Amino acid sequence: MLILGIESSCDDSAAAVLQTEHPGQGVVRSSVVANQDDIHRAFGGIVPELASRNHVVAITPIVQRALESAGCQLGDIDAIAVTRGPGLVGSLLVGLMYAKGLAHSLEVPMVGINHLEGHLLAPLLEHRLTMPFLALVVSGGHTALFVVEDFGRYREVGRTRDDAAGEAFDKVAKMMALGYPGGKIIDEMSRRGNHKRIRLPRARVKGAPLDFSFSGIKTAVATFLRSEAAVGVAAEDLAASFQETVVEMLIRPTLAAARQFNVSTIVLTGGVAANTRLRERLTQAAADEGRRVVAPSLKYCTDNAAMIAMAGSWRLLRGERDPLDIDAEANLPL
Fold first, then answer.
1. CA-CA distance, 314 to 114, in Å (whole number)?
2. Residues 111/317, Cβ–Cβ less than 8 Å
3. Which CA distances in Å does 254 have to 130, 201, 206, 265?
4. CB neighbour list of residue 258: distance below 8 Å, 6 or more residues apart
5. How remote is the C-alpha of 327 from its chain's centroid?
6. What is the domain class of 2-122+301-316 according to CATH?
7. Average pLDDT of 164-168?
8. Are 139 and 11 in contact (CB under 8 A)?
């Protein structure tokens, strides 16, 4: 089966072709992503209206490039998997409406996919995994822990009470006038800084050891920048201290969940999974307890359509399809 994946939940327009015969297995024939960083950089964050308008411009060329890279044509496609939520509703609608039009004209089945399910199953694009496993999904819009019991069976066991970790990276980078996107910039700067230079508070959610909170760390950085203590402090040191704090706040609940649910494999996925310090420290901390960490390569951490096609494969291979009147849902639950 050749599955065309389409992803447009935020500011990345993406298309991919996945060849698969069995759920959770497949060959990525192509994966093409067009990001809008240059468009949103001037605003220090994503402007929803601009994002959706640029999806309209990019979606057809992206799909064409994915087909060309895969060495196939639209007529070769057997099914379509498209993100229907959660995300920015205007952006979601562009990809979803496009997928509906293709599915109708090609007379092929289509399934709407939860964006989070795509991240949960992204490691399957490159790794063989035995379920159940624990997944830490950490991105600009989401920070949550899931026990993945089987295809379609995902149990959320921890979540952020306020902001996502990736959003905190972007907001702190904006406070420090570092540019956009903030996560990548802070990651690179931190390698030249001393994370022990500044002590920032580590948030814990009382009575909920598997939950996260990142609003306080943003306030702490803002307070520090306005204080006399900030005078003479290198930006690299502050970036490293902030990053180390966030990494520690992500690792503690993750390992606690791994112990509680007795899982030996931890999946790290989502845009912030590209952070080098998080990958390094979580891998080491898990190994110290006899557990392993599996993370997608960097190109599959950030939003992409290959993970959407993979998430759709288990449903499509057993004959499921969604009607063409399904709607985008900004807050689609998993």
1. 13
2. no
3. 18, 19, 16, 11
4. 134, 266, 286, 289, 291
5. 22
6. alpha beta
7. 93
8. no
Whole-number Å distance between alpha carbons of 71 and 76: 10
Instruction: Average the pLDDT over 260-274 and give the result.
Output: 95
Check: pTM over 0.85? Answer yes or no: yes
Tokens 């067009």 -> residue? 34
Tokens 């950030």 belong to 302
DSSP annotation string for 136-168: EEESSS-EEEEEEEETTEEEEEEEBSS--HHHH
Question: CA-CA distances (angstroms) from residue 247 to 111, 237, 238, 282, 333?
Answer: 35, 15, 14, 8, 26
**DSSP-assigned states of every residue in 285-313:** HHHHTT-EEE---HHHHSS-SHHHHHHHH
In eight-state DSSP terms, residue 281 is: H
Q: How far is CA 75 from CA 4, 170, 293, 311, 330, in A?
A: 11, 41, 39, 22, 31
Question: Could you report the per-residue pLDDT of 183-192, keeping only the tens digit for each?
Answer: 899 999 999 9
Question: Token pair for residue 269?
Answer: 């996925």
Give yes or no for residue 148 having a pLDDT over 90: yes
59-68 residue pLDDT tens? 999 999 999 9
Which H/E stretch holds residue 55? helix 48-70
Query: What does the alpha-carbon distance between residue 3 and residue 17 come to, in Å, rounded to a whole number?
Result: 6
Q: Which of 1, 7, 2 lies closest to 307, judged by CA?
A: 7
Q: Where in the chain is the domain with CATH 3.30.420.40?
A: 2-122+301-316, 130-295
**Better pLDDT: 218 or 45:** 218
Q: What share of the chain has pLDDT > 90, as a percent?
A: 87
Amino acid letter, residue 123:
P
Which CATH code fits 130-295?
3.30.420.40
